[in-house]
Amino acid sequence: RGVAGAGCDLAGRHVVVSAGGTREPLDPVRFLGNRSSGKQGYALARTAAARGARVTLVSANSALPEPAGVDLVRVGSARELREAVTEAAADADAVVMAAAVADFRPASYADGKIKKKDGQDPEPLALVRNPDILAGLSADRPRAGQVVVGFAAETDDVLAHGRAKLAAKGCDLLVVNEVGESKTFGAEENEAVVLGADGSETAVPHGPKEALAETVWDLVARRFPGQG
Ligand code: CTP
Ligand code: CA
């Protein structure tokens, strides 16, 4: 429980969390994917439910067990995730995009399995951009005062990249993780800095993903209209 997160401070709120990693299909048996486990998003969903929120968890291909007390919507691709999040966001007080969304998808989908041909090199794989769900949600909020949160995994100049990304996306908060070989993906623990559009910077020390989740909800709750 975060310091400011006592009791059921999210009671009466509807929050939407996306989790996991999208898969972009190539043919009926193949996809382009990423290594996101869904652990951080599921931790966000569980902690919000424990603080009294109604939670919609939009889960992209996570193998984690279904958390109790949340509405789970399973999706595959980035476009499916956008549709599910947009629908759930219509009456939401907050949306947290913890999912790893593929930036690109195959330009075409083959209805039948792609076969190799004897003695021939493969065709290069053509990709197209996926929609930026977080930027779209931030620009077109269905409710005034809806709080929108993004996640970013960065290497090198982590804070500078984070600040630039926060501004580019137009969200209220951006949780910035430093990633490396064994950091973050699939790990139980996390270390992050939460950047606010108001210029604030909240360091979250290395610890369980639940602790980061509690801090995120503390910062979200403070931004609800009429709070402090
Ligand atoms: N995101 C999204 N839609 C996309 C890509 C990303 O909603 N098509 C969201 C992610 O869920 C995350 C945030 O945007 O909350 C940042 O994702 P990230 O991949 O770091 O941002 P990008 O703008 O894709 O930047 P990069 O080129 O560094 O991957
Ligand atoms: Ca990306």
Automatic annotation (TrEMBL):
- Positions with a binding annotation for CTP: 103, 113, 131-134, 151, 165, 169
Keyword set includes Cell inner membrane: no
Q: What is its EC number?
A: 4.1.1.36, 6.3.2.5
Q: What is this protein called?
A: Coenzyme A biosynthesis bifunctional protein CoaBC
Segments forming domain DNA/pantothenate metabolism flavoprotein C-terminal = 10-221
| Provenance organism | Streptomyces diacarni
Which GO terms fall under molecular function for this chain's record?
FMN binding; metal ion binding; phosphopantothenate--cysteine ligase activity; phosphopantothenoylcysteine decarboxylase activity
Could you say which cofactors this protein requires? FMN; Mg(2+)
In the record, biological process GO terms are:
coenzyme A biosynthetic process; pantothenate catabolic process
Q: Which residues of the whole protein does the chain here span?
A: 196 to 423 of 423
Q: In which pathway does this enzyme or protein participate?
A: Cofactor biosynthesis; coenzyme A biosynthesis; CoA from (R)-pantothenate: step 2/5; Cofactor biosynthesis; coenzyme A biosynthesis; CoA from (R)-pantothenate: step 3/5
Q: What does this protein do?
A: Catalyzes two steps in the biosynthesis of coenzyme A. In the first step cysteine is conjugated to 4'-phosphopantothenate to form 4-phosphopantothenoylcysteine, in the latter compound is decarboxylated to form 4'-phosphopantotheine. Catalyzes two sequential steps in the biosynthesis of coenzyme A. In the first step cysteine is conjugated to 4'-phosphopantothenate to form 4-phosphopantothenoylcysteine. In the second step the latter compound is decarboxylated to form 4'-phosphopantotheine.
What does the UniProt cofactor note say? Binds 1 FMN per subunit.
Q: Which family does it belong to?
A: In the C-terminal section; belongs to the PPC synthetase family. In the N-terminal section; belongs to the HFCD (homo-oligomeric flavin containing Cys decarboxylase) superfamily.
The terms describing its cellular component in GO are:
phosphopantothenoylcysteine decarboxylase complex
Which residue intervals make up region (Phosphopantothenate--cysteine ligase)? 15-228
- Gene name per UniProt: coaBC
Q: Which keywords appear in this protein's UniProt record, sorted alphabetically?
A: Decarboxylase, Flavoprotein, FMN, Ligase, Lyase, Magnesium, Metal-binding, Multifunctional enzyme
Q: Which reaction does it catalyse?
A: (R)-4'-phosphopantothenate + L-cysteine + CTP = N-[(R)-4-phosphopantothenoyl]-L-cysteine + CMP + diphosphate + H(+); N-[(R)-4-phosphopantothenoyl]-L-cysteine + H(+) = (R)-4'-phosphopantetheine + CO2
